[in-house]
């Protein structure tokens, strides 16, 4: 019934021994989670290839294939058609299954892999037979073993044969969860979702934090952040969003601190609270969408002053990107259109008219003397609402 499967090629997993096992296991569990909404699949690996096999009628293979394109750790993916383990069945399947692509190409080659050693031909013999016949069947084609436009792959496996063509590029990177966990500060803007994508790509699992200043920022603003998080699950996998009540802190800052330092003091509170979340969730770093030179709060001095309140490393993966590059990334991962919805963020609520761009640690620390910093952090931390983010396909 289901004679088509998905093949995933693993990248960067050139590691040995235990590490390799751990990487593959993470990748398999990530793939399983991603394809689950599209039906029942068997997901397993053999020789650096992950097989995604539909187990029932009605599996949405197109959907699963698209989902696999976003799984980090996969460098290439293709769909394969199964057939009988017989030379003419291989030929017929290649002719029909890859017909359109073969008809549109000028050069090709056939490559065979033989896992089933009882198969009566060697892999070279099988390639030569099928290649020779295809060459005759498609007058447009000639064999080029060095730089073929299309490579026809034939696999003689234990239970069946498979036919597939060149893989499409996958998402690359490392399987999410293999590089530990970090807390990402997710605003409703363009930059922080791109930052999440970039650290997830290097194998980091994310716990999300959003600072919410109701009623200065609306419920729509919160829904927008939840939606961004949902879109990110395609790449980042399972996540929990910590919504931190931030109104009281912002009002206290406005009441007690010099206006030019509002943003800086506020951002220091964000870092402190995020670090508390990191400790609770066993996370080893904080992630922000800060970029150098975009706004007053993103000078090197400002980063120094905000980073000074926490001892965990602060990762700023978009720091070296131009705005256009960040926008391009946001478009690619599908967050851009949601990010530009016009709901205000807490950062824009009490924006000073003349923010200090070159603050010193001393003046900011002094400004905070007027506040019960520990008490405010504790209260906000206790008030956190934890929201489990659903997959894009759910609901
Ligand atoms: P973004 O496009 O991500 O909103 P930005 O260019 O608007 O970034 P800022 O407003 O200075 O820059 O925020 C810098 C970073 O601080 C954000 O990328 C994000 O990581 C974090 N941040 C800002 N506001 C919030 C918020 N309300 N909740 C969580 N994190 C926030
Ligand atoms: Mg912003």
List keywords for this structure.
single chain, 395 residues, alpha/beta, nine-stranded mixed beta sheet, six-stranded mixed beta sheet, 15 helices, 41% helix, binds magnesium ion
Task: Note the overall shape.
Answer: elongated
Strand segment count? 15
**Ligands (ions, cofactors included):** adenosine-5'-triphosphate, magnesium ion
As a percent range, the share of helical residues equals 40-55%
Number of H- or I-type helical stretches? 15
User: What is the H/E string?
Assistant: EHEEHEHHEHEEEEEHEHEHHEHEHHHHHE
Termini separation: 29 Å
Largest sheet: 9 strands, mixed
Which whole number gives the mean pLDDT?
Answer: 93
Radius of gyration (Å)? 26 Å
Low-confidence parts, pLDDT < 50 over ≥5 residues? none
Question: What percentage of amino acids are in beta strands?
Answer: 15-25%
Class based on secondary structure composition and strand pairing: alpha/beta
Describe the structure.
- By secondary structure, the chain is α/β, with parallel strands linked by helices.
- Helices cover 41% and strands 21% of the residues.
- The chain contains 15 helices and 15 strands.
- A hairpin with a 4-residue loop joins strand 7 (150-156) and strand 8 (161-164).
- The longest helix has 20 residues, at 262-281.
- The model has no long low-confidence stretch (mean pLDDT 93).
- Bound molecules: adenosine-5'-triphosphate and magnesium ion.
- Adenosine-5'-triphosphate is lined by residues 185-187, 189-192, 209-211, 270, 288-290, 294-295, 297-298, 345-347.
């Amino acid at each position: 019934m289901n004679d088509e499967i998905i093949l995933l090629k693993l990248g960067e997993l050139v590691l040995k021994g235990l590490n390799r096992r751990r990487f593959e296991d993470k990748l398999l569990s990530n793939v399983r989670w991603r394809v689950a909404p599209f039906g029942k699949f068997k997901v397993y690996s053999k020789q650096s290839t992950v097989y995604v096999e539909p187990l029932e009628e009605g599996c949405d293979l197109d959907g699963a294939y698209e989902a696999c394109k976003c799984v980090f750790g996969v460098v290439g993916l293709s769909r394969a058609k199964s057939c009988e383990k017989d030379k003419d069945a291989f030929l017929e399947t290649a002719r029909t299954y890859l017909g359109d692509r073969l008809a549109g190409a000028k050069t090709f080659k056939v490559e065979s892999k033989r896992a089933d050693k009882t198969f009566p031909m060697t892999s070279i013999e099988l390639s030569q037979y099928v290649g020779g016949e295809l060459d005759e069947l498609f007058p447009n084609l000639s064999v080029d073993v060095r730089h073929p436009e299309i490579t026809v792959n034939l696999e003689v496996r234990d239970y069946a044969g498979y036919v597939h063509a060149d893989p499409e590029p996958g998402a690359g990177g490392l399987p999410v969860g293999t590089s530990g966990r970090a807390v990402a500060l997710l605003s409703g803007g363009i930059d922080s979702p791109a930052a999440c994508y970039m650290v997830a790509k290097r194998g980091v699992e994310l716990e999300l934090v959003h600072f919410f200043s109701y009623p200065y920022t609306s419920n729509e603003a919160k829904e927008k952040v939840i939606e961004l998080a949902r879109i990110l699950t395609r790449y980042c996998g399972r996540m929990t969003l910590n919504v931190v009540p931030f109104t009281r802190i912002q009002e206290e800052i406005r009441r007690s601190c010099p206006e030019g330092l509002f943003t800086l003091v506020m951002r220091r509170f964000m870092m402190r609270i995020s670090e508390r979340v990191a400790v609770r969730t066993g996370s080893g770093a904080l992630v922000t969408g800060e970029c150098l030179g975009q706004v007053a709060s993103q000078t090197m001095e400002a980063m120094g002053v905000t980073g000074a309140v926490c001892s965990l490393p602060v990762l700023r993966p978009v720091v070296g990107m131009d705005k256009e590059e960040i926008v391009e990334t946001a478009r690619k991962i599908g967050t851009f259109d949601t990010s530009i919805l016009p709901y205000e963020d807490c950062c824009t609520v009490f924006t000073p008219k003349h923010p200090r761009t070159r603050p010193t640690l001393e003046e900011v620390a002094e400004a905070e003397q007027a506040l019960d910093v520990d008490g405010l952090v504790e209260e906000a931390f206790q008030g956190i609402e934890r929201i489990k983010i659903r997959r894009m396909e759910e609901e």
